Amino acid sequence: MVNIPTSVKALAVAGFVSVALAPIAFAQTAAQNEATYSSLLQAIAAEKVSLAQQQMFVAKQGGEIEQLNVQIAGVGDLKASIEPMIGKMTTGIAGQINSDYPFEMDRRIPRLESLEATVADPAVSIGEKYRKALNIYKLEVNYGQSLEAKKGNHPVNPSIRVGDDRWVKEDDGTIKFDKKTGEREEIFDGSYLRYGRLAYVYLDADSSGAMRYDLEQSAWVDLPKRNIVDIRRAVRIASGEAAPNVVKVPIFNAP
Questions:
Q1: What is the mean pLDDT of residues 144-158?
Q2: Please, what's the largest Cα pairwise distance for the chain?
């Protein structure tokens, strides 16, 4: 065994330590460089993706702007096509009302006149004209899908009542008020009944007679007594006084 001086041992140990530690320090530096390089590559890739997304967004916006420009350019053509259509709708509504059964004319005629005035006004937007025409068109269509009863006077020989004779009286002689509307209850000769657009009839209050409006003659014609029971039942159903049920419609002329 060779004795090594203390100072030499220290150097040897120091040398050993130095030799042992050098590769570890080098490995750590390489790993850090690799991590840094990897992070840099990821950042570059992220930037490329972000740039690509921005380019896609810009391209999309450019396409949408182009589409809007095309639509704006076509507004004139669209307006030119819609205005004649609104005119045809208005003419069709007018034709329907003028050739239809004479129900609710106190509402339908003013609506038609208001529509015609709106369509003829150049200051009104095309959108407002179309909205109004479509709204009235829907109302007219709905008339053909409902059963409706309304009180009124005789269509040919209406009674004329003045003063307190116009109002229904209670047993004590005071004027009777309608429970639903709160208004005074008026006396009428009978009731009008509309079966969609299939028929329009009138029934006396005491069920003594009934009439039907004839579209071909544009006049009211008497109905046979045998129709009265069915009409009275339909009036009660339409007024909510009886449960819904199947009703018979007097749509043919009867001797």
A1: 93
A2: 150
Predicted confidence at residue 104, as pLDDT, reads 94
In the sheet that 199-204 helps form, which strands lie side by side, from edge to edge? 147-152, 190-195, 199-204, 210-214, 219-222
Helix (H) or strand (E) holding 199: strand 199-204
Report the distance separating Cα 129 and Cα 59, nearest Å: 37
Residue with tokens 């709708």: 89
User: Could you tell me the two tokens for 17?
Assistant: 């330590």
b/e map of 105-124 (b: 16 or more CB within 10 Å)?
Answer: eeebeebbeebeebbeeeee
Structure tokens at 91: 């003419």
Domain residue limits, the chain: 75-143, 147-238
Q: Which of 247, 196, 204 is nearest to 225 (CA)?
A: 204
Q: Which long-range contacts (CB under 8 A, 24 or more apart) does 110-118 make?
A: 111/136, 111/139, 112/136, 115/90, 116/90
Mean of the per-residue pLDDT values for the chain? 80
CA distance 164 to 186: 10
Is residue 254 scored above 60 in pLDDT? no
Match 């004209």 to its residue by tokens: 129
